[in-house]
Amino acid sequence: MKQFYKPIAFSIGLWLAAFCAISQSAQPAQSYTLEQCIEYALKNSVNMQNALLDQQIASAKVKETIGIGLPQINGVVNATDNTQLPRFFSRYAVAQNFNPTLNIPGLTPNDVVAGQNFFQLSNSLNATVTANQLIFNGSYIVGLQASSAFKDLSYKTTNQTKEQTIQQVIKAFYASLINQERLTLFESNIARVDSLLKNTTALNSNGFAESIDVDRIQVSLNNLITEKSKFERLQKLSIEILKFQMNYSMDRPLEISGNIADLNIDQVLLDDYLKDWDVKTRPDYQVLEVNQRLQQLNIKNKYFSALPVLSASGTLGYSKQATKFGDLFSRSLQFQETPAGTGPNKLYPFSSYGFTLSMPLFSGLQHSYQLQQEKLKLQKVNNSFNMLKSSIDLEIKQSVTSFQNSIQSLEYQKKNMGLADKVAKVTKIKYKQGVGSNIEVVDAESSLKEAQINYYNALYDALVAKTDLDKAFGKLLPLYSK
Predict the structure, then answer these.
(1) How far apart (Å, rounded) are the C-alpha atoms in residues 9 and 3?
(2) pLDDT tens digit string along 71-115?
(3) Which of the residues 13, 31, 199, 216 could staple to 255 if both were Cys, CB 3.0 to 4.6 A apart?
């Protein structure tokens, strides 16, 4: 019977898997703008999720540090069965005072004997509650300040992660958007060359064009179709890269929406960036500032650790003893004093309180050398400031140069594309009127295609340069994050 059901179960499993696959593939592709892609990435990328978790960890760390200064209360219940009590050594005369029935022939009063059960029974029960309260500890005060700085560091690091995520998503989105635009342009070029091929074929049939003219145009058309297929695959790959940067499900379809004509790449904004530039707007600089503050607190903590530590403590408990372990729990617990002879079955209270003042006096110069190490670490952090400032200055100069070059190149390539398009149209008209050659038409189409490729390459370079410029001047977060 089991063998009968196995094929059926297997078939049902295959059917369900196929149904799920078909349902998934049938899902309509969701369209995202650049802002929506960034918003999605900031919520779902693994790096951002980990950065937000680090914020929660830092918040919990602050509360943990605060808890050190709050009362520490512990409760302990201990039931012990002493199977063999320790011996008490005393003179024979003293032992007889505790146990009058003790009689060991041949011993003098000054002889030493070892006895048991002089002072306690073999089973005991103790229940205690102990409270400790820190009154003064310099390291605790510094620890509170450090925990707050550590929390601030987690937020600054999150901003740095945001900036990196935004930069990656923008570049991936622009690559997909430009490829998408180029595919539209390929379709237009293919339609135009296909129309030219049909006209030339008709002219050849009527004896007004040679067959080699038809072949040349056919070669151009085939090349365009081949390049379009390559760009279609490249576009799919660029979408997958964008999904990866967003942490978008690779199995779900994704489309992007946007118009290249709406992209604003203005040379004027560079003047505004230079005018309002402040290195403190950079997230990496802010992270280093918090690290410097933490190191300063480390030095302060080393100084404070040499101060006295004052704390208070108190203990409240109850105890009981019995000759048998089970008798510890045999009667109801009563907390009042009892007459002599009935004590072992009762719980007796005890309590204590006190203050502790501790102060390090000499540690073999360890404290001095530890303080020296922390000061040297602070010098390293200060050196990192100088290095970071130089690195930022170099990054700004590089981004400004790249931006200026890309803007200039984009302007020229846009003009070249317009001129190439004009030449292609005029050449085609001349060819139709019989005053131009087929070779001129093919060359003009090839020049137009090359001009278009150069334009879109320059456009992508300009968009990337603009993104790098925004990052260098610390503008990505204000521009694209809420």
Answers:
(1) 10
(2) 999 999 988 887 777 777 777 777 777 777 677 777 777 777 776
(3) 31
